[in-house]
Structure formats: structure tokens, C-alpha cells
Amino acid sequence: MIADTRTNAGIDNIAVFRKLKIVSEPGRRTLAIATSGNLSVSQSVISLLAEGVENPETGELETLESQPTMFKAAQLVGRAVREVWRVDGASLEQMTARFDVQLLFGGQVAGGRVRLFMIYAAGNFIEVTPDTPYFQIGEHKYGKPILDRAVTYETDLYDALKIGLISMDSTMRSNLGVGPPIDVLVLRKDALVPELDFRIEPNDRYFVDLRERWSRALRTAHMEIPRPPYGANVPGDVEG
Amino acid sequence: MIADTRTNAGIDNIAVFRKLKIVSEPGRRTLAIATSGNLSVSQSVISLLAEGVENPETGELETLESQPTMFKAAQLVGRAVREVWRVDGASLEQMTARFDVQLLFGGQVAGGRVRLFMIYAAGNFIEVTPDTPYFQIGEHKYGKPILDRAVTYETDLYDALKIGLISMDSTMRSNLGVGPPIDVLVLRKDALVPELDFRIEPNDRYFVDLRERWSRALRTAHMEIPRPPYGANVPGDVEG
């Protein structure tokens, strides 16, 4: 899971906020949430999950740590989103702000599979499958072409991380609302503890090198393709 | 200038429409308009320009052919956009459709420079400069990273065409609303006649080859970048 840290309320109001939240009880569960959209909404969702979401039937406060499966945990995140909507949604809309939030929720609970969900503002969610082995939230378009071409269900974990960083780089170059540092989590199947939990700073040597190499590779790649052979004055539909 | 030909009113209602209009009087002027947005709006703008836009001061009908400079011609296109807004804007909004149109307008009038403008729905416009030597309209994000990295003001015309086609390919792969055939215009400085006016069909041999080579190049490019060196269990901010 990869998350940038930039938030903005206009281009003259930019700040750094961590958007990758990790909850780990080594050997029992490792869960992670990445957020995009309205920061007040996503922070409220995270805070609510930490304090506990009330179960409407039992009245008990439920947390991610108390969920027996990833599916149940994803449902709980969805309920937290709906609860924030219930409290803040109407007021946000009165101020013409949108209740705009999307989350990636992934991880593993002992005894279950590693699962990755994308959770929408309505609290509903979808899950990664072999056909579509990745999700993006937030500003996703600039960085999608490389993911579509290079990431499969069989991709090595650190190749996937590398390609994810290339994708992030493309996004950061084109949208000032996405920026470093970048938080990274690698979770290996059945490890039940983060294998890598790292913040890549803007001057990180590997990341700077990756950005330069990728730019150079793109420039070289197109040079190796022949120029279009389409001749001069091919009949077309010029109108005089 | 490169334009796809796909329009849609929902994914179950897809059609082919030419969106690249060329007006050429060889030796005197060659102008071209590419459109995006609501097809009824852009077609009305094109039709109005063909019939003539009334000059509010003289009452005369003005066409692109009657404009002495590219700047004046761009203003005329802007006036055509405003005229369509005046006639259709309110009704569109009543039906919750947006008055959504963007145009590229470029070319050369004898005695003037080659110029390229991007014209907005309000009829205002901006012009390409050496710092920003290209414009995109419509679905622009997927295809922007390669343009940003590979196109400069000094890029050879047919290299630029090639890079433009790569950019289009990235867009078509990610957005079903963008599709072949692709119309292409190459206009060389002071030629005052199209050097290339060509429709690239979906099975065009060069374009199919370009798509395959580019996909392969992207996959190879990332393989030549080393994997991230970030070690296991780097101290981070795991919270239990």
C-alpha cells in the first residue's frame, strides 16, 4: 500500500498529513487503511474506528481489532464511513462541500486470506481479484497506464512496489495536490506483521534515481519506435 | 492535431463522429478545429462557423475564411461558442446537461505565424507558448505523462505526431469513451496547405505496431530499474 501525504485546501494551503494508517498485532492481524478525499471526513473515519463504532444491535463499541475476519472488518470501516456521513454529511452539503472519501482497506487476520478492499463514500466496497489485482483512490488517472500494463496478479511484491512508485511519480509530476513524502507498507502473505513500513522522503536516494531512470526510459522508449510512415498529402477530407 | 472519433451518450450508446474539422484555402490559410465535450454543442459551433457568425456591430455574417489573422479567427470561434450558449445554454441546464465544450483551434493565415489556441466554454482562450508547447482537450490525464516528458518546443514534427499517438493510445486503453479511428492533421510552418490529413483506422499496421512496441517498452523500462532497497522491518509508525 502506497500513500502520498499531501493535502490541500486550495493551492495556497498545502500541508503534510499521513494518510496511511496501520494497525498490527503481530501474529494475529495486520490491517492498513489508505484514505483520499476530504481530510476531515477521512480523519473522522479513522478516529471513529479507533474509538469504536457502535453495533446497532448489541450497543457494543466495535474496533478493527475485534473483527474476526477481513470481510467483517471491511464492513466495520463501511459503517464508520456511514456514521461520519450521518453526523457531518448534511452540514458539508449545506456549505457546498462534498462528502468525498474513498479508502483502501487491506490486510490479513490470522486464519484468513490477505484481502484488499476499496471502500466508497456510501460505505459499500469491492475487492481485488486476479483479473484486477490493484486499486487506486484519489487522483488515479495519470498513474494508471503503467499499472495496467505492468502489474499482474503474479507480479513479485517488490516489483509491484517499484511499479507503484513509478505510478506515484507520474501522478506527482502532473498534479500538485499529490506530493512527498510517500508512505509505504509491504505485507507478505501469512507474515501477520509488516515486512516494510517506511516513509520515502523527497530526497530519498533510491526514489530520486527511480524518477530519473523512468524519465530517461520513457524518452528512450519512444525514440526506438519508428516515425509515422503516413505520406504527404494523403487523400483526406479537407474542406475548402 | 490529433482527434479520436468516439462519442457516447452512456456506454451503451457509442458512435463514430469526426471531431477534427479542417478549413484550407491552399496558399492563403489552413485552419483546424478539434472539439471535445457535448457533441450537440460542438457540432453547433462548427455549423455556425460554416454559416457565419453575425458581427454585432456591422450585422454582417463572418466566417473563418473572412478573418485576416489567427487571433481574429480564434475570437470568432469564441463568439460562435457564446452564441450557442445563448441559444442552448439555459435549456441544457434545465435538463441537467452541462454546456460542456472545449476546442483546439490552430493553423496559419498567410502573413502570420502558425498559432494554436485552446478555447473554453465561455469563449475565452489561451495560446501555446515555448514553455507549454501542446494542448489537450477532453480526457487528458492518462495521456499527459508521456507528453510532459517527451514533447518540447523543438521536437520534430513527426516525432511529435508519434508521441501524440502514444498519448492517445494510453488514453484509449483506459477510457472506453475514447476510441478509433483517429484523425490526424500535420501542418508545416508556411506551407499553408495540410502536409498530412489522414484517418488512422483501428487495424492500421503502423498504429498496431506502435501500440505493441510501446507496451513492450514500458514493461522493459521498469524491469531495468532496480527493485526498492528498503529493508525489512525498517522502523516506522506501526500502531498496535
UniProtKB/TrEMBL annotation, chains A, B:
Key words, A-Z: Hydrolase, Protease, Proteasome
Gene Ontology MF, one: peptidase activity
CC per GO annotation: proteasome complex
Single biological process term from Gene Ontology: proteolysis
Matching InterPro entries: Ntn_hydrolases_N (IPR029055), UCP009120_prtse (IPR016545)
Protein's recorded name: Putative proteasome-type protease
Species the sequence originates in: Hansschlegelia beijingensis
